[in-house]
Write a structure and sequence with these properties.
Number of helices: 2
Radius of gyration: 20 Å
Low-confidence stretches: 1-19, 269-282, 343-348
Oligomer: single chain
Helix content: under 10%
Structural class: mainly beta
Shape: globular
Strand content: 35-45%
Strand order of the largest sheet: 22-23-24-25-29
Length: 348
Amino acid sequence: MIRSLFSALLLLSWSTLLPAKPRPHYAVPGNEKPVALLHSAKSTYLVTAHSVFRLEGHEFVRKQQFNQLIQCAALADTALWLGTRTGVQNVNTVSFKTHTLRLPGTDAAPSITAVFRDARGAMWVGANGQGVFRWANNVFTQELHTPAINGGVATADSSVWIATSIGLSRKQGTEWTRYNEEGVANHEIPDNIVEKLLPDNAGNLWVIMSDAICVFENGGQRGAAEEELPTVKFIGRPGNEVTGVVAVSGAGRLFATAQGLLLLPNEPAGFASFTPSTDKVEPKRLLRPVTLPTNAGNPMLLEVDKQQRLWLASESGITVLTNAELRHLLAAPVTGKALAGPSARSAN
């Protein structure tokens, strides 16, 4: 299973990707923490801790600024949905006028920890202390009453995933499934405290927990309750925060972490897969630190666009690498000692 997670990328070839023009590094005023990088058909938006920027020519221009802390964001048609510490702000992408959307309940200013759009186009909002709501016909309907909401995403298979402090909830059609440490009905994950959910560009969902990281692979096995999920204790070192992940064709998985960019290379031919029914522990694998230009800072967000360019967002701005530039960067010799990667189902 571990092997299948990283070998799927070998099906793609660098030569099949369309060429893309390089873009300059974009300095972003304010040096604020990036929250979301959002692309529409014609525009690119950067949402930071207190601001909304739009890419205009060769610079990101601030279009709106907020006193309240922005924690999450999503794009829907002609509106940006911002989840803040004090509620939901809706920003028109033409006029950039804002208005507040009020959630049901007694808390007039809830802390919004999830805002996302599902595969059918519906908007979802998670409020810590109140639960999860779906916006339909200009009205919020409560979908989940679990109070401790830490995040949420939707995947292309029409699933909705909610990270909570008592496990992971998933909605398929009209049914909710809960994954937790106790493994009720064999729906098990190694930790109940799910801190964040990171979908990658290969269709996999990475579940970041307080004491482990696991992945629901894209494909038929993702919904199999009896399957043991590929799991590691940490990426890089204990306590290292993971904020983004992308699949790099022919190379491996690239993680944005507090330690910097770390590449987990594709496994070599003949690499033994982990067998859940035994006590076998895989040998350590080496994570490769990736060195970026100084002005790129330490990226917190990673996005791959339709032209296979990699967008990296840090507090110092946005760096965009073409596929060829990324290949060159990953092929560069490692400076310093490579990092020991985590063993499957085992702590380092």
